[in-house]
């Protein structure tokens, strides 16, 4: 567990989550994420749906 649990939970948990949300907002607001051209992605349906070999993305700055 990244932030621990129970009585010994990390004191910076809420601050770290807030920083991650702010960073994600800045990336989404300033860049367009597009998949790289190539073969279609093969999906792994279980236990969590995700591309088998990862998802290669290109970041393009929005002017």
UniProtKB/TrEMBL annotation:
GO molecular function: heme binding; iron ion binding; monooxygenase activity; oxidoreductase activity, acting on paired donors, with incorporation or reduction of molecular oxygen
Pfam family, one: p450
UniProt keyword annotations, A-Z: Heme, Iron, Metal-binding, Monooxygenase, Oxidoreductase
Stored InterPro entries: Cyt_P450, Cyt_P450_CS, Cyt_P450_sf
Family: Belongs to the cytochrome P450 family.
Name of the protein in its database record: Cytochrome P450
